[in-house]
Amino acid sequence: MINIAIDAMGGDFGPAPICEGTIKALKEREFNAILVGKTEVVRPLIPSRYHDRVTFVEASDVLSMSDSATDALKRKETSIYKAVDLVRQGYADAVVSVGHSGATMSLATLRMGRLKGVLRPAIATLMPRPVGTPALVLDVGANVDCKAEHLVQFAIMGEAYTKDVLKIEHPKVGLLSNGEEKSKGNEVTKSAYDQLSNMDSFYGNIEGNDIFNGKVNVVVCDGFVGNILLKTSEGVAESITKIIKNNIRKSPLAIAGALLMRRVFKSLKKQVDYAEYGGAPLLGVKGCAIIGHGKSNSKAVKNAIFQAIAFSDSNINEDIQIGLSKLEN
Predict the structure, then answer these.
(1) What DSSP string describes 57-98?
(2) Do 260 and 300 sit in the same domain of this protein?
């Protein structure tokens, strides 16, 4: 059975939503949960009927969101350090944390180690689209400065994830640029374009609006651009929701229309809610690390655990290494 190590102390709201999300996940899937944190706080939040599938690992220290990511490497008693080390030692197949994302990324990279041939691990996230499966975007924050060879590896890792975890048989990979033409982009993306041209799944350059129209399944960019893209998209979705609500309140007729359109609005909210996707996998490390949003509720935690299970139940890391070996030949 798959074992998932969960940082029970991470996140903005403490262990309560993390434990609640773990319980929801245990109700729906077969796996063993390893909750890492202050046992006297965490254990009472888990009903005794689940104790046969939950292990509690004591961690006396908690890394707060305001702490530096470099502190995580020194503070070996933190819940995130111990959770990552469970994967490193082979006691867990994956780690899930909705705490300090920088610390999770650093610890996973340095303690679990990179896959052979991986230059830099990348954080991948799912972006909702009107129809079809979400688009996988990477990198969204792990690497702000990239070389062309890094982007090429991101493409290989993203393709493997899309095939193995999202179950898309023939994914298309796009390189995010300021125009579709081969001549567009900076020197890094132009060089990456030339190298990616040998990849069967490579679609070519795409623009920002193409992320949401279904042209490609995987969007490749450096972490600087990707993080701005992610935060901007979250802000736009939130602004549109507020604009709709404000306009509805101004008109009795609009209120009546909104009641009739309740299902549509509910569907919209579900599509843009990060809780539906749970977290972002860190691709390129040994094992599996899922990095969740600091404001994750129990639903987001549950779905982050589901991502970890799907990842651990796939051959993605083997396929990444096969893809990278082909690149070398």
Answers:
(1) EE--B---TTS-TTHHHH-TTBHHHHHHHHHHTTS-SEEEES
(2) no
Total domains in the chain come to 2
Assigned domain for 15 exists: yes
pTM beyond 0.85, yes or no? yes
C-alpha–C-alpha distance, residues 216 and 58, integer Å: 44
Q: Over the Cα atoms of the chain, what is R_g? A: 20
Are 59 and 96 in a shared domain?
yes
In contact, 285 and 104? CB cutoff 8 Å: no
**Tokens representing residue 187 in the block:** 């020197």
User: Is 323 within the bounds of a domain?
Assistant: no
Task: Evaluate if residue 182 carries a pLDDT over 90.
Answer: no
CA distances (Å), origin 224, targets 7, 26, 67, 139, 185: 27, 36, 21, 8, 15
- pLDDT value at residue 264: 47
Residues 6+ away with beta carbon under 8 Å from 326: none
Q: Which of 134, 130, 224 is nearest to 176 (CA)?
A: 224
Residues 142 and 225 in one domain: yes
Higher pLDDT, 130 or 277: 130
Residue range 256-285: mean pLDDT, rounded: 64
Query: Does 127 share its domain with 257?
Result: yes
Return the amino acid letter for 160.
Answer: A
Q: What are phi and psi of 129, to 5 degrees?
A: -130, 160
Amino acid at 67: D
C-alpha span between 171 and 253 (Å, rounded): 44
- Whether 242 maps to a domain, the answer reads yes
| CATH number for position 42 | 3.40.718.10
Domain co-membership, 192 together with 137:
yes
pLDDT band at 253 (very low <50, low <70, confident <90, very high): low
Residue 188 lies in domain: 119-279
Same domain assignment for residues 62 and 13: yes
Helices (H), the chain: 15-28, 39-42, 71-74, 79-88, 101-107, 148-164, 187-196, 223-249, 252-260, 262-272, 298-312, 316-328
